């Protein structure tokens, strides 16, 4: 413990080094007896001289501090000081101006009916404070006078005798005064001891008195400041929200007033107590004098070294220290100075112990340093570390690090089991296994135990979550279907007509048809009129540019007539379509609805079949090969054509079903009379009410499912797993903090995968992606980039690095986000999170749509300037990462095509020639651009390729260097 104290003092307290020689010297003289010291008398004489200089200087300082204390304690010019007078006038005038602002606030508050700013509440207080502001200095002066009357009562009791009173109280005058018969046996030892004792007396007295001096000086300054700010305190007292600052001003002002009388009281009390003690001593019995004198033997032949003098000194200092403690409790600026003075005294308590112990430790340390130097020299020569303690410490640290990493892996695997993650063999842990893992996770297990709704026996499982998700999705579909039925039924009301109305509709449609025939005839007459001044004649003149103004007006009028006829014709056609719908009878309404539902279901099934064909790996492979210009074998070409025919047939069926669905949805429902029409309306209302009840039921079920899903305790497992992953990754990131070389990072990732160090795999994979080189690790593992490469990386992490399915997919998703931030857009959005918080592969089309959305936000200049092969396309898995194995991705093709002209121009101005050559090396890339509407971009790339292939890059570089004059 002493060692800790000493080391702390040596490290942080510079004062100890200043006083250490003095304490060592004092200790030497106090320990060694006079008889032993006779031979070294000259040394004591030298030390005596040095100590006398210290004591003399401290004595002069103490006298000056005592005189300053009595002068400051008598100070009374608080109100009439020039700084106070000038400052108070300025603050008062500013506060008076602000009263106008406050009046305006009160007016607005009253108008707006704000309770806290109503004039009834604020105006009386405001008027009162406006008056008090101008008398604030006078009020402060009265309070100061009250405090000063009390303070000066005590100050006047001790100021007349000045510094002499204090020096006698502390026993300063007797520090070097020889005791009776003290001249006998005076040696250098006793003289040095007397000076050491005097040094301690003076040092403690100076600290205490100087602290009081600074407190009284700070009190004067703070009272000045508070008097100057007194008008602001009254203004704030009248403003809502300002009362607390006004109260704070009063609190601090009163504290600084009180602290002065308290200090003066304790100074007076110290002197008074010692004077009473001296008077009592004078009336002691004469027969006790001899005994008292023999008991009061001086240690160092001085009066100050007698026990009675020491007691007197301790009482005086104790009284003053008590005053400091009370002042500290009062608070304020002066109180804070008292606290600092007390801390200095407390630090002094450990200086002596620290000095002696420090000397011993210093000697031991020097001896140990010598042996350590010899050991280190031998270790350096032999090439073997002989510092056994350091070796054991390093081994202990590494062992603990390995143990912590092992515990993190155990916890991660336990959480993975509790969450029911898919194992490497594709199975999930059983119910009992999951519950045992959940219980053994500690905090998560305990939370499940104490939760009545989701305890360890009923907590959600992956199967239950998947089941709930299916129920939610099914409910959502059923709700949408019911809502669609409601819309269909409600639309039937407008399509229900009586037999008479249907006949009228047919007649109206026939009339409109006849009207359209007349409109068509009129239009043809105008268009075919070839006479002079006719449409054809005028149109020919206009084309030859010889038409007159009058003829131009006539031509425009004919054109306007044609436009009006066409508009009327189209309007009639719309009405004819509305009046000529397919008709059904009321008894076939239900059958029609069922047929519409059947068509919808059929189309959904056809959509699934089409998606299955499009997502088939063989179909995607054949399409990719064909788009890259590869020659397909007859069998492959037949397979590709067959699948395309299947897709074509599916599309035709979907279109036919959609047309029939539209016809049925718009069919007229024919009834005979108005009464039957009302009956049908009533049936519809009942059907709608039933369907609306069904929708409400599904809403409730969906809400219940979602609530259960949200409260599922597996979410806590996921949070705990994320924390473990972050911890492992954070520790691993420290190891590779200074590594940026991609080859080194690739080697680290492969080694980490072999050792199943998942934290290091995550840290290194993210770091290599941030440096723009994630494709290097994919190439080293034989994986491609883009959507396919990211999906295969997720599988690779599970099979070769020990990742769970969710951890692997989550890492791929995070790397994709990082890739997007460095311009490698094709790595983005390969994974997405479903409603249950599980990572799932994103469909390729959905991924490309997300990338296209992100690319659309990028400025063309930036896109062209930073365009790279991992932003525009991707490499295939299992093949070298060359231009021949690289293909454009639809997202970039669509982006370029949507901005073709601007992209081409920017590409020519600031395009990177390396990327232009990479795209242009494969003619198929340019054909794809042209086929999808980016003709100008393809043309520009061809142009730039031709210009840059005339000379090699070295030749161009040499020409550039030679051109420098």
What does the model show?
- The chain is mainly α and 965 residues long.
- Helices cover 77% and strands 2% of the residues.
- It has 41 helices and 7 strands.
- Helix 16 (388-419) packs antiparallel against helix 27 (714-735), helix 28 (742-754) packs antiparallel against helix 29 (758-770) and helix 29 packs across helix 30 (774-780).
- It starts with a helix and ends with a helix.
Strand order of the largest sheet: 1-3-2
Helix percent reads over 70%
Query: What distance lies between the first and last C-alpha atoms, to the nearest angstrom?
Result: 77 Å
- State the low-pLDDT regions, or none: 1-40, 176-186, 279-295, 349-360, 453-457, 950-965
Radius of gyration: 50 Å
Q: Percent of residues in beta strands?
A: under 5%
Mean pLDDT: 75
Number of domains: 5
Number of strands: 7
Structural class: mainly alpha
Characterize the largest beta sheet: strand count, sense, and whether it forms a barrel. Answer: 3 strands, parallel
The number of helices is 41
Shape: extended
């Amino acid at each position: 413990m002493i060692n800790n104290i000493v080391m702390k003092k040596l490290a942080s307290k510079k004062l100890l080094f200043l006083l250490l020689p003095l304490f060592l010297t004092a200790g030497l003289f106090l320990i060694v007896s006079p008889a032993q010291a006779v031979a070294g008398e000259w040394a004591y004489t030298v030390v005596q001289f040095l100590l006398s200089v210290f004591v003399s200087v401290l004595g002069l300082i103490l006298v000056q501090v005592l005189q300053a204390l009595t002068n400051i304690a008598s100070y009374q010019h608080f109100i009439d000081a020039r700084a106070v007078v000038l400052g108070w006038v300025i603050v008062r005038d500013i506060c008076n101006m602000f009263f106008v602002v406050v009046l305006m606030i009160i007016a607005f508050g009253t108008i707006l009916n704000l309770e806290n700013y109503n004039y009834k509440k604020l105006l009386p207080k405001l008027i009162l404070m406006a008056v008090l502001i101008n008398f604030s200095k006078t009020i402060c002066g009265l309070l100061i006078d009250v405090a000063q009357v009390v303070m000066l009562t005590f100050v006047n009791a001790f100021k007349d005798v000045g510094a002499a009173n204090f020096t006698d109280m502390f026993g300063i005058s007797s520090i070097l005064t020889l005791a009776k018969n003290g001249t006998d046996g005076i040696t250098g030892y006793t003289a040095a001891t007397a000076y050491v004792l005097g040094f301690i007396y003076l040092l403690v007295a100076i600290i205490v008195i100087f602290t009081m001096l600074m407190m009284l000086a700070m009190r004067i300054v703070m009272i000045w400041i508070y008097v100057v700010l007194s008008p602001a305190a009254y203004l704030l007292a009248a403003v809502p929200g300002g009362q607390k600052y006004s109260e704070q001003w009063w609190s601090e002002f009163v504290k600084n007033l009180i602290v002065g009388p308290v200090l003066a009281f304790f100074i007076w009390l110290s002197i008074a107590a010692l004077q009473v003690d001296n008077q009592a001593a004078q009336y002691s019995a004469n027969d006790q004098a001899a005994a008292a004198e023999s008991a009061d033997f001086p240690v160092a032949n001085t009066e100050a070294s007698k026990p009675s003098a020491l007691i007197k000194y301790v009482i005086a200092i104790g009284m003053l220290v008590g005053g400091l403690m009370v002042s500290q409790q009062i608070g304020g600026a002066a109180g804070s100075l008292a606290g600092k003075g007390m801390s200095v005294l407390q630090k002094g308590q450990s200086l002596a112990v620290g000095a002696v112990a420090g000397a011993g430790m210093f000697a031991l340390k020097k001896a140990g340093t010598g042996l350590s130097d010899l050991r280190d020299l031998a270790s350096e020569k032999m090439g073997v570390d002989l510092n056994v303690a350091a070796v054991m410490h390093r081994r202990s640290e590494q062992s603990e690090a390995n143990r912590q990493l092992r515990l993190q892996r155990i916890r991660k695997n336990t959480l993975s089991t509790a969450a029911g993650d898919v194992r490497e063999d594709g199975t999930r842990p059983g119910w009992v296994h999951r519950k045992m893992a959940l219980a053994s996770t500690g905090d998560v297990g305990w939370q499940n135990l104490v939760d009545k709704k989701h305890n360890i026996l009923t907590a959600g499982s992956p199967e239950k979550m998947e089941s709930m998700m299916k129920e939610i999705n099914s409910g959502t579909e059923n709700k949408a279907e019911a809502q669609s039925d409601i819309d269909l039924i409600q639309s039937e009301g407008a399509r229900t007509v009586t037999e008479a109305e249907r006949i009228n509709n047919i007649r109206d449609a026939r009339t409109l048809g006849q009207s359209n025939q007349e409109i068509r005839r009129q239009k043809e007459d105008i268009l075919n009129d070839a006479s002079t001044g006719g449409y054809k004649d005028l149109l020919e003149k206009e084309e030859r540019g010889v038409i007159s103004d009058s003829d131009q007006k006539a031509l425009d009028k004919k054109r306007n007539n044609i436009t009006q006829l066409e508009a009327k014709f189209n309007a009639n056609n719309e009405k004819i379509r509305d009046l000529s719908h397919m008709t059904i009878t009321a008894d076939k309404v239900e059958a029609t609805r069922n047929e519409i539902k059947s068509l919808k279901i059929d189309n959904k099934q056809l959509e699934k079949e089409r998606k299955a064909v499009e997502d088939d790996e063989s179909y995607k492979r054949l399409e990719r090969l064909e788009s890259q210009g590869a020659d397909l074998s007859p069998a492959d070409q037949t397979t590709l054509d067959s699948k395309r025919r299947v897709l074509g047939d599916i599309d035709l069926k979907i279109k036919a079903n959609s047309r029939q669905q539209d016809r049925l949805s718009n069919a007229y429902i024919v009834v005979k009379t108005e009464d039957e029409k009302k009956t049908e309306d009533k049936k519809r209302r009942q059907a709608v009410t039933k369907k609306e009840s069904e929708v409400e039921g599904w809403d409730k079920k969906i809400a219940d499912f979602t609530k259960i899903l949200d409260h599922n305790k597996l979410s806590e497992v996921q949070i705990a797993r994320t924390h473990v992953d972050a911890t492992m990754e954070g520790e691993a990131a420290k190891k590779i903090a200074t590594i940026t070389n991609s080859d080194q990072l690739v080697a680290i990732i492969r080694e980490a995968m072999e050792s199943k160090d998942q934290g290091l795999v995550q840290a290194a994979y993210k770091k290599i992606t941030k440096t723009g080189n994630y494709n290097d690790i994919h190439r080293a593992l034989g994986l491609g980039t883009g959507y396919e490469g990211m999906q295969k990386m997720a599988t690779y992490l599970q099979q070769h690095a020990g990742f769970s399915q969710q951890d692997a997919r989550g890492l791929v998703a995070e790397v994709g986000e990082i890739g997007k931030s460095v311009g490698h857009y094709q790595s983005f959005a390969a994974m997405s999170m479903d409603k249950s918080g599980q990572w799932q592969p994103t469909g390729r089309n959905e991924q490309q749509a997300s990338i296209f959305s992100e690319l659309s936000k990028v400025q063309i200049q930036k896109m062209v300037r930073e365009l790279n092969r991992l932003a525009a396309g991707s490499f295939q898995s299992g093949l070298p990462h060359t231009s021949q194995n690289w293909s454009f991705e639809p997202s970039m093709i669509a982006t370029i095509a949507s901005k073709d002209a601007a992209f081409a121009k920017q590409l020519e101005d600031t395009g990177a020639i390396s990327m232009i050559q990479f795209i242009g090396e494969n003619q198929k890339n340019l054909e794809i651009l042209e086929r999808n509407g980016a003709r100008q971009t393809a043309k520009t790339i061809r142009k730039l390729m031709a210009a840059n292939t005339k000379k090699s890059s070295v030749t161009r570089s040499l020409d550039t260097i030679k051109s420098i004059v």
